[in-house]
Amino acid sequence: MPSLPSLGGLRGRARGERPTPPVPVPLSAYVVDCGVYVEGRRLPGRWTHTAAVAEVRKRRDGFVWIGLHEPDEQQIQGVAETFGLHELAVEDAVHAHQRPKLERYDDTLFMVLKTVRYVAHESPTTANEIVETGELMVFLGRDFVVTVRHGNHSGVSELRRTLECDRERLAMGPSAVLHAIADQVVDSYLAVTEAIEDDIDVMETQVFAPRTAVDAEQIYLMKREVLELRRAVMPLALPLRRLAEGYITLVPEQVRSYFRDVEDHLTTVSEHVAGFDELLTTLVDAALAKITLQQNVDMRKITAWAAIISIPTMVAGIYGMNFEDMPELHWKFGYPAVVAVIVVACLLVYRILRRNRWL
């Protein structure tokens, strides 16, 4: 029995019209750079991923480094087949939204890192966004490195140019590239935490300054941004520890010591982020206490003015009863006398409330 076309395929076209096939996009549209490195030196020329890996395996020396930017499933499939990447890791690399992790598939490592960028703003009390995140995936093999980035602030292109000037590091192989990427990502965490610390100092000064109004929503926003940074930092500790302690055979001993240094930097960042979380919780409590205190002061003022206004209201209510036998009703100076009594009584109550700091 022939299969029926899906509703999604029929929607939007006339009866009998064939579906329009997707427009193929060449892999070059997603490839940022592809290079062959032998003894720490980049070979000249432009390379496709198939020609690059063929050259390395013919030489039995060096490695290939190919960088991709947000490829789709069809475009990454050719790279996956050439380098033997596992389909589950490829799926994670395409769809992104992954936690930082390190997985091993046969002779290939797959590592996910969260990239962060500090969003510049005039003041933390008016900012709508403080931290912007992206993702960077790295496939590591014995003779290749494949980087897949999501977002535009990973800085991999600048890192490649820096490494190409350091032949000794590149001569260590693909694991040196993985270390350089992890080191740059963690260094960006340090820079972001320093900037956030300055913002929290500004927020703290305004919260505890007298006669200043601080919106608690802005503190919640900053706490949300710190939590976003925490989700990028905390899960990365275990993958770096595995790379530093020698459980991964693809990482030689001479590179493991560098990963230990990155792990130390990440520990420093984790401590800062944990401190930010606690401090922002304290600032939220302080801001809410300040708001509550201000509301109490406002209520006291409203109550005090209501007490003063009740005096003329009471007198007007009595004289508005329209009785004939009212005291001083037919006296010539009755009206000014009543007004004078009201004013004196109001001033007396105002003075008493002022002395008790209700006004």
Short description:
It catalyses: Mg(2+)(in) = Mg(2+)(out). This protein is α+β, with helices and mostly antiparallel strands.
Walkthrough of the structure:
- Its main location: membrane.
- The chain is α+β, with helices and mostly antiparallel strands.
- It has two domains: 27-291, Beta Polymerase, domain 2 (2-Layer Sandwich), CATH 3.30.460; 300-355, Methane Monooxygenase Hydroxylase, Chain G, domain 1.
- The chain is built from eleven helices and seven strands.
- It has helices at 7-10, 49-59, 73-83, 87-95, 156-164, 167-170, 174-208, 216-233, 237-244, 253-319, 334-355, and strands spanning 31-38, 41-42, 63-69, 101-105, 108-118, 131-140, 144-150.
- Helix 7 (174-208) packs antiparallel against helix 8 (216-233) and helix 9 packs antiparallel against helix 10 (253-319).
Residue ranges: pLDDT <50 for 5 or more in a row? 1-16, 19-27
Give me the strand/helix succession.
Answer: HEEHEHHEEEEHHHHHHH
- Report the biggest beta sheet as strand number plus sense, adding barrel if it closes: 7 strands, mixed
Counted up, domains total: 2
Write the layout of secondary structure elements.
Blueprint: H1 7-10, E1 31-38, E2 41-42, H2 49-59, E3 63-69, H3 73-83, H4 87-95, E4 101-105, E5 108-118, E6 131-140, E7 144-150, H5 156-164, H6 167-170, H7 174-208, H8 216-233, H9 237-244, H10 253-319, H11 334-355
Parallel strand pairs: 3-7
Antiparallel strand pairs: 1-2, 1-3, 4-5, 5-6, 6-7
